[in-house]
Structures are given as C-alpha cells and as structure tokens.
Amino acid sequence: TPSVSRDRALGLLLGGALGDALGAPFEGRAAVDAAEIAAVERAANPLAHTDDTALTLALAAHLAARRDDHGGLVDPDALARELAAAWRAEPWRGYGPGAARVFELIDNGTPWRAAASAAFGGAGSFGNGAAMRVAPVALVTTSARQAAELGARTGELTHAHEHGRFGAATQAAAAYLALRGDPARPVDVTRFLRELHRAVPSRPWHEKLNRVAELVRTAAEPEHAARALGNDVSALGSVPAAVLAFLQHPDDPVATLRYALRVAGDADTIAAMAGALAGARCGAGAFPRAWVDRLEAAAALHELAGRLAG
Length: 310
Ligand code: F2R
Ligand code: MG
Ligand code: MG
Ligand code: MG
Hints:
Oligomer: single chain
CATH class: Mainly Alpha
Bound molecules: ADP-ribosyl-L-arginine, magnesium ion
Mean pLDDT: 97
Order of helices and strands: HHHHHHHHHHHHHHHHH
Structural class: mainly alpha
C-alpha cells in the first residue's frame, strides 16, 4: 500500500478537531443557521475541543506508539486504560453520562468488557462515542475491511451495543476510503457506499446508507437530511449524516463542515466525523489557516500526524 502523505494524515486529524470545536457551541440545538456558523468561524477566540477530540488524541497516540514499537496495531487492554485516563484527566470535556461511568469503572480497574457491558442496564451503549474517535484507525490499516474490523475492536472497549460498534466500523471504513481515494478523481458515491455496506452486516445500517445515496442524488439540504437520517447522539442517528455531509461536498472541506453543522442536533460530533473524512481526502491545506491557528489541539495533532503518516 502506498504511504499516506503527512498533509492527508494531518487533514484527517485537524478536520475532526475543527468540526468538534466549531460544532461545540451548537451541540443539542434543533437547528443551526448559516449566519450563526459564520459568526463562530469569524470569531478570534481559541477553538476548544470536547470529548470527541480528547479521545481521538488518545487513540491516535496509542496507534502511533504501537507503530513505533512494531507491535500489533492495538493493545485493547492498554487502549481502554488510556481512553479512561483521558477522561480522568479532563472529565469536564462534555462526556456522555454512560461514557463517564464506563471510564470510571475502567479507571478503577474493572476489565473493559465488564465495564462496557454493564452500561445502560446491560444493553451497552449505542452512543456515537466510539465512532467519533475512530478516524485515526484509517491511518494504520490497509483495506476498508481491516479499518472496519479494527474500528469495531476499538469501539467495543466502551460500546458493547452492536450499533455503537457498527458506528465505529462504518466511520473507520469511510475514513479509510476518503484517505485512500484519488483526490484528482471525483468520488464514486455508489462505490463508496457499497464498501460501507460491506463493512457493517446490519439491516438498519444498510437502510440508512441507502437513504444517504438518495439524499446525495437529490442534493438534499441539511435540514432535510436531519429528518431523514437523524442527528442525535446515537451512532445510527449520526454517522450516516456525517457520511452524507462528506459526500455532498467531497472536494470542499469547508462546505462539508458547514453542511454538517447545519444538520444540527449532535452538531459537534457530526461535524467532527464529517471533517475527518473531508480532511483525509483533501488534506490539511484545504482548511482555512486562520481556523487551524485557533485550534487548542493544533500542536498535539501536528505531532501525531508526523508519527502516523508514511
Ligand atoms: N454527551 C454529550 N453531550 C451532551 C452532554 C454535554 C455535557 N453535559 C456538557 O455540556 O458538559 N456529548 C458527547 O457525547 C456523545 C458521545 O456519547 P458516548 O460517548 O457514546 O456516550 P454514552 O453516554 O455512552 O451515549 C450517549 C447517549 O446515548 C444514549 N444511549 C446510549 N446507549 C443507550 C442505551 N443502550 N439505551 C438508552 N440510551 C442510550 C444515552 O442518552 C447516552 O447518554 C457525543 O455527542 C459527544 O460529543
Ligand atoms: Mg463532544
Ligand atoms: Mg457531540
Ligand atoms: Mg512516521
């Protein structure tokens, strides 16, 4: 497999962080309009990230350290402890209540499988927390299928419900396809979505991905996409909208981010996932310099991109 350029590795990481930080003020809102987004873009304040980026940083650091050691791609027990340590260090980053409880158990020594399985009365979490952090998996894998499998394995550390895992698998495969596609050729939407179908053996996911295809075909507005796909904190109710935001504007990361923010609902997370896909395809240079300079996590993301590229 040809190597990943530093620009695209950095784009994947910065795109996720920009979506998270630009979307944070809008999280939970029923609607977001273009003027509000423009005001957040124009402001000069630092762009603070939330749990989405905090956990992405922890996962990316784990992948980079494993790569330097020539170990397996992940060490699940160690990764679970590192994710829990990221929560412990900054519990105020906006974590979901289920996630906080799982991390607290792991941090206190409970094995991750027991901790994740105990969530929500034993159902496990179907939140999008596994999907929102997973994009860096695309940087160390060599096929969409492998990205999906590794994504699911990193997801089940906290998300025992199948939809939590499927969300991570879908977003990981999408990030792989975005990263490995030729940016000089238009994205083949049908083929892209066919690969995502293969990544997730699940009727409800296939049904959502079919709707994504139709919404691309009709150039649906974000408000309509939110109703057709969902925009909530569940994986099934947010990952499809993020994939759609990317596929609506695959060669314009700023347009992808704005579309994702206007989907509203879990805006930070939908924009983080969409931004990672856009940056993976178009590279870091496609984001406005002024936004990147405001990112609180910029230095850490640059360092990790250097270690994960190549
Ligand atoms: N949690 C938030 N934002 C709202 C709170 C913000 C915070 N209080 C603040 O402003 O400071 N954002 C972050 O959480 C989402 C990722 O969630 P994750 O990590 O999957 O967490 P959790 O708690 O496991 O799941 C999220 C919610 O989904 C519902 N849910 C999940 N599984 C369920 C099940 N089996 N049965 C019923 N409900 C289930 C619950 O409502 C969970 O709280 C991202 O948006 C991130 O930005
Ligand atoms: Mg968040
Ligand atoms: Mg969120
Ligand atoms: Mg390197």
